[in-house]
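Format notes (please read before filing issues)

Several people have asked whether sequences and structure tokens are stored in separate files. They are not. Every record keeps both together, in the order shown below: the sequence lines, then the token lines. Line labels are part of the format and must not be stripped during preprocessing.
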Amino acid sequence: MSKMMFDYTKSILERVSFDPILFCKELEKAIKTLLPYEMEQLQEWLLNFIIEKPELKPSLLLIKV
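Then the structure lines:
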């Protein structure tokens, strides 16, 4: 079940990545929902994802990388 939640979270974040504010809101929701080990996975994914989208860099502050 948790793998499904992590994949769902990634798909939502990918869909809203056009808007940095909406991206941050969805990321905040994910932080509240995901388990600690899933957060580690999300951090890794996010670091790779924002390489192509520098406008999303402020979202790193939410996950305290």
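For reference, the curators noted about this record: The radius of gyration is 11 Å. Helices lie at 2-15, 20-33, 36-49, 60-63.
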